[in-house]
TrEMBL record, chain A:
GO terms for molecular function: 4 iron, 4 sulfur cluster binding; metal ion binding. It comes from the Bacteria. Residues 265-295 form the 4Fe-4S ferredoxin-type domain. NCBIfam families: ccoG_rdxA_fixG. InterPro entries: 4Fe4S_Fe-S-bd, 4Fe4S_Fe_S_CS, Cyt_c_oxidase_cbb3_FixG, Electron_Trans/Redox, FixG_C, Helical_ferredxn, Ig-like_fold. The gene is fixG. This is Nitrogen fixation protein FixG. It comes from Mesorhizobium prunaredense. PROSITE patterns: 4FE4S_FER_1, 4FE4S_FER_2. Keywords: 4Fe-4S, Electron transport, Iron, Iron-sulfur, Membrane, Metal-binding, Transmembrane, Transmembrane helix, Transport. The chain crosses the membrane at residues 43-61, 95-112, 169-187, 199-219, 377-395. Gene3D superfamilies: Alpha-helical ferredoxin, Immunoglobulins. Pfam families: Fer4_18, Fer4_5, FixG_C. GO terms for cellular component: plasma membrane. Residues 1-21 are annotated as: Disordered.
TrEMBL record, chain B:
Its cofactor is heme c. Pathway: Energy metabolism; oxidative phosphorylation. Residues 108-196, 203-284 form the Cytochrome c domain. NCBIfam families: ccoP (TIGR00782). The chain crosses the membrane at residues 32-54. Heme c 1 binds at C121, C124, H125, M261. It is found in: Cell inner membrane. It comes from Mesorhizobium prunaredense. Belongs to the CcoP / FixP family. It holds the Pfam family Cytochrome_CBB3. This is Cbb3-type cytochrome c oxidase subunit. SUPFAM superfamilies: Cytochrome c (SSF46626). C-type cytochrome. Part of the cbb3-type cytochrome c oxidase complex. FixP subunit is required for transferring electrons from donor cytochrome c via its heme groups to FixO subunit. From there, electrons are shuttled to the catalytic binuclear center of FixN subunit where oxygen reduction takes place. The complex also functions as a proton pump.
Length: 519, 287
């Protein structure tokens, strides 16, 4: 309750007054990032061009694998359960290569984050890249920050309507192209695109495009920074892999404070003045809408655009660049201690400068050496160990395999002449895109003979079967051993498969079962 | 509670909940989050209206979409029937011999026959078709009524000693307990047992040969090799439906057990019987 007897209107209001209390459910505060140019921005344009090019163009690359396999360089063939990556072809049972790559990606993220901070977020994350792309559209149509703020605040005029509709239309078109590009990874791209426009592609293709269009449009256009702040798990995980020696985008208050918009006046009054002129340029460019001068924050994706903004200002003022810079926490703390005389006073820029301008040479700077510390060595060696193991297994893997399933029910059959028969399901895996003739031979098991349902066997203990390119051939093989040769309830023998042309081979040790008492 | 408490460090009001001196901050949720939350509730309610959900006294609401998983199954089964159509038609038109010679049809028939076998045949012949005492093992190469695909088809269609099928396979081994003396039964059993390698009492085996020639050879053959026309088993091999011991043989001579197999032709239809015949033939013993 306000005191009605009070004559002056109150200047201060209680923080829990209904007027200032934060609503329980906060609407999003709109962010209007300003255009900026500079080294990091240039680098980000480059990364954006490369990542988008990889995404959109990869399915169109061709790779000749001969007449029996698709010629798409990168193809996830779900129907036939094959994954093609240039010269590598992966069968479902070799999925551990993909798992290994994911492990490497995880450790790689730790490695990168512990050295150069959230570089993934700032430069290469699809969310960042697509938001950047959407912002390009937004700026092209509605103008830069101030124009957009004005437009947004203004009432709905025909012009605003046209601008808004065209912005969202282009966003949707980009989103559709994004979803559209995704499906080309799963089918032959040139033929799929024809089917797509003819309306004859599989329904799942259209559904996928629809879903990805919706997510791209929502995440890249509508939700933007909220995806990073509220939805994405990486910021939480990355926070744990950062330490005091990781580079992060830092506002160097030890030279910026006390900030002042009226530096000359303050100087004249004999007050200490820092380099920050409080122009808010860093805030205006931030795609996350935060103020880096408040310190390291979970919202910051370290896109480094505020560095570009601040460097531009410093250039204009003829001051040293790097008021906002990539710095490690330990350097920052050391410099902060210097600037505050070990915490004895508030920041005094003169403490870090020898005379009026040059920085004292006691200041801490980042050194490449800091990248090499136990933590990064551990990440590095784990990463390379997984990588080398994958590489080794890839280079030495078999492209011809035999798998054998022993019949369990019944385990053996007594035949009329007293001999014992066991059944085996033998699977021949021809993992190259060429037809092959595979010779299956039995080794061991005295006097035993093989027979195959549906095949006339010229020889008793071996047969040769054609196997289609890139396919599995299943044979039902019966093995029969005369009663007098059976010397144990379980004997072992080998199925050996060989490609006589390439001399590739594989073996499987199988068991032959017999009843306990053989007459 | 007297007014709100504001956390000193973060300047954010707290909920007033406190555990061991730790207070819960009352940070506002993003509005879109809250809206999403309400949308899920609306969705859930709509879902229970669209689909069967609310329990009633004897059943549940059917939902405005009248969805039923039973319907789905029925449709899927119908679709599967249609998809099988062209194979079934081919099976109908061809003989089992032709089916077995065709790679694609044989594969289809073995898969379908295997499924039909699991439903109709495993009760007697076992899940691996391995049989048991009195129920023949279908994996081996000993066939009472012949192991050619057509013979198997015939057996399945009309059954064995199945009274209500006039074409059923019929063989009645007499109960020799009423015909020959117990001594002769012992002799002939010893003789039969010796045919498949057992070393028996020669004093019984030698007269047993005579008993066999007079009483048994008519059906089982001079060499006791059996006769699939008559369903008479080969007595010289290693496979015994009712046991290989001399006593088991004697019991079978005295008062034979006569297994019955139903006629499946009427019940399963021609195509399924063909599938079963091809399947059984493929188990390894088919001739
Ligand atoms: S926070 Fe998540 S979504 Fe945002 S840039 Fe980083 S990884 Fe991408
Ligand atoms: S604070 Fe700077 S680095 Fe962080 S997100 Fe904003 S602009 Fe990018």
């Amino acid at each position: 309750m306000r005191d009605k007897t009070q004559t002056e209107p109150p200047e201060a209001e209680a923080i829990d007054s209904p007027n200032t209390r934060e609503p329980l459910y906060a609407p999003r505060k709109k962010v209007f990032p300003k255009r900026i140019s500079g080294n990091f921005r240039r680098f980000k344009w480059l990364v954006m061009a490369i990542t988008l090019a990889i995404y959109y163009l990869t399915p169109w690359l061709r790779w000749d694998r001969g007449p029996f396999a698709p010629d798409q360089a990168v193809l996830i063939d779900l129907a036939n359960r094959r994954f093609y990556f240039f010269f590598i072809e992966i069968w479902p049972q070799e999925f551990y290569y993909v798992a290994g790559l994911l492990v490497m990606a995880g450790i790689g993220l730790f490695l990168i984050t512990s050295t150069v901070g959230r570089a993934w977020c700032g430069y290469t994350c699809p969310q960042t890249v697509w938001v950047d792309l959407f912002l390009v559209v937004e700026r092209a149509i509605e103008g830069d920050r101030n124009a957009r703020i004005k437009l947004d605040a203004g009432s709905w005029t025909a012009r605003k309507l046209v601008l808004r509709v065209s912005r969202h239309a282009i966003w949707l078109a980009i989103a559709a192209a994004t979803g559209g590009a995704w499906i080309f990874y799963f089918a032959d791209a040139p033929s799929l695109i024809d089917e797509l426009f003819a309306g004859t592609a599989a329904p799942v293709a259209y559904i996928t495009i629809g879903v990805l269009t919706a997510t791209t449009y929502t995440f890249g256009g509508l939700m933007r920074e909220q995806v990073c702040t509220y939805m994405c798990p990486w910021p939480r995980i990355q926070a744990a892999t950062l330490d005091e020696n990781s580079l992060t985008v830092t506002y160097n208050d030890w030279r910026g404070e006390p900030r002042s918009r009226h530096a000359k006046k303050a100087l004249a009054a004999g007050q200490p003045v820092g380099d920050c002129v409080d122009c808010n340029a860093c805030v205006a460019v931030c795609p996350m809408g935060i103020d880096i001068r408040d310190g390291q924050q979970l919202e910051c994706i370290t896109c480094a655009l505020c560095i570009d903004a601040c460097d531009g200002v410093m250039n204009k003022l003829g001051k040293d660049r790097g008021l906002i810079s990539y710095a490690t926490l330990s350097d920052y703390n050391a410099n902060m201690a210097a600037a505050t005389a070990g915490g004895a006073c508030s920041v005094n820029p003169s403490l870090v400068r020898t005379d009026g301008s040059a920085f004292s040479n006691r200041l801490a700077h980042f050194h490449v050496r800091k990248i090499f510390r136990p933590r990064t060595f551990v990440y590095m060696s784990a990463w390379s160990a997984v990588g080398l193991a994958l590489l080794y297994s890839l280079l030495t893997r078999d492209r011809l395999e035999v798998n054998v399933l022993h019949d369990r029910n019944p385990q053996f059959v007594t035949l009329s002449d007293g001999s014992i028969r066991n059944g085996y399901t033998v699977k021949l895996l021809n993992m190259i895109p060429e037809p092959r003739t595979i010779v299956v031979t039995m080794q061991g098991l005295a006097d035993a003979e093989m027979s195959v349902v549906g095949i006339d066997m010229p020889a008793d203990r071996s047969l040769s079967v054609p196997v289609e390119p890139d396919r599995l051939k299943m044979l039902k093989i019966f093995v029969r051993q005369p009663a007098e040769q059976i010397n144990a309830q379980a004997q072992t023998f080998k199925f050996r498969v060989e490609d006589k042309a390439s001399l590739e081979s594989d073996e499987y040790t199988a068991t032959f079962n017999a009843p306990e008492i053989v007459r | 509670m007297s007014g709100e408490h504001i956390d000193e460090v973060s300047d954010v009001s707290t909920t007033g909940h406190e555990w061991d001196g730790i207070k819960e901050l009352n940070n506002p949720l993003p509005r879109w989050w809250v809206i999403t939350f309400y949308v899920t509730i609306v969705w859930a309610i709509g879902y229970t209206i669209a689909y069967p959900a609310w329990p009633m006294l004897s059943s549940a609401t059917r939902g405005v979409l009248v969805y039923s998983s039973r319907h789905d199954v029925k449709n899927e089964l119908e679709a599967a029937e249609v998809a099988k159509g062209k194979y079934v038609a081919a099976l109908q038109a061809k003989t089992v011999f032709e089916i077995a010679a065709d790679d694609v049809l044989r594969g289809f028939a073995i898969a379908a026959g295997g499924a039909a076998f699991k439903v109709n045949c495993v009760q007697c012949h076992g899940s691996g078709a391995q049989g048991s005492k009195g129920f023949p093992n279908l994996n081996d190469d000993d066939w009472l009524w012949g192991g050619k695909a057509e013979q198997i088809q015939q057996t399945i269609t009309h059954g064995i000693r199945f009274a209500s099928d006039s074409d059923t396979r019929l063989s009645e081994m007499p109960a020799f307990g009423d015909i020959i003396t117990p001594e002769q039964i012992r002799q002939v059993s010893a003789y039969v047992s010796s045919l498949s390698g057992a070393v028996g009492d020669q004093a019984l085996v030698i007269p047993g040969a005579n008993v066999f020639a007079e009483n048994c050879a008519a059906c089982h053959g001079d060499k006791a090799k059996g006769n699939t026309e008559l369903g008479a088993p080969d007595l010289t091999d290693a496979i015994w439906l009712y046991g290989a011991r001399e006593t088991a043989i004697a019991a079978q001579v005295r008062a034979p057990k006569q297994g019955v197999m139903p006629a499946w032709g009427g019940r399963l239809g021609e195509v399924t019987v063909k599938e079963l015949a091809v399947y059984v033939h493929s188990l390894g013993g088919g001739e």
